[in-house]
Write a structure and sequence with these properties.
This protein has 62 residues and is mainly alpha-helical.
Length: 62
Amino acid sequence: MPDGKIVAVALLTRRDLEAFGSCLERVFPVGENDAFEALVDRLEAVPAVSLPDAGRRTLPSR
C-alpha cells in the first residue's frame, strides 16, 4: 500500500487518545460546535458493517 493513502478515520475520545498514545501518527483535534455535532449525527445514522476480526485492536480497560 503506498505511503500517504488514507486507510482509516476515527473519532476518538480523550481516553482513546491516552490509550493509543504514540501509536497514532497524526491527530487532528476537533472543537465542539454545531457543524461537528451535525456530522456526528449523520455518521451515527450510517448502518454498521461487519469487518473481519483480523488486525483489530482493543483498548486496554482501566
